[in-house]
Fold this sequence. Notes:
The chain is α/β, with parallel strands linked by helices. It has helices at about 5-15, 50, 55-60, 60-75, 85-95, 110-115, 185-195, 215-220, 250-255; strands at about 20-25, 100, 125-130, 130-140, 145-150, 170-175, 200-205, 225-230, 245.
Amino acid sequence: MSDAHDVARARALLRDARRLLVFTGAGVSAESGVPTFRGAGGLWKSFRAEELATPAAFARDPRLVWEWYAWRRTLVAACAPNAAHVAIARHAAAHPGTTVVTQNVDGLHQRAAADVAAHARGAAPVVALHGTLFGERCVRWPACPTRGALAPAVDASSVDTLPRCPACGALLRPDIVWFGEPLDPADLDAAFDAARGADACLVVGTSAVVQPAASVAAAAAHAGAPLVEVNAEATPLSALATVTLRGRAAEVVPAVLDRGRT
Length: 262
């Protein structure tokens, strides 16, 4: 855990923020046991993620791509939000000026927010820049606007059993930003608007190298917001951070978003 003085400094910066941006990456979910689907250990039936998570792969073999995503959903559904997700959700519910932006597709921020909303006055929405593993959209999107949690169970045994759009009958696809695709402009605008308007920014568990998402927290810092970075190691954002905290997200984040002091 980081030095107590640095934790206290970070807590004071975040406590006083009326418009807090929380920006997260894979590190916030590490202690939830979310598997890695890229790089070492990311092989599935001799395929790598980079070979399956593309529009071309889906056009070529939608059944195979859906089989992979159905498997991923099963693994991630068995994971639970950890203390970092819960602390962020509680803070956002208690502070309406908070915006949560994530690079993660695991849905754990959304699940934590839903759990908090069930016991509190509400929860802030989550801007998921790279989409969500548990959502679908029509392959004709945005021409066909069908989008959401439309197929809770996917039967990928054949092309004929794959989920189809209830509006136009075309195939549904995972609501994920695939390799070679741009981010949703509405989500990107929401993230950068929050960054430019933030009076503090908490960054948790991102390597800060995947663009354009990596520029969101930097935009907040360049606009004058103090930046608190929580990460196990240094990143390109470390030089911009007002306070850098090294440690486990599930330990550090609850410490700086102390409900009794916010």
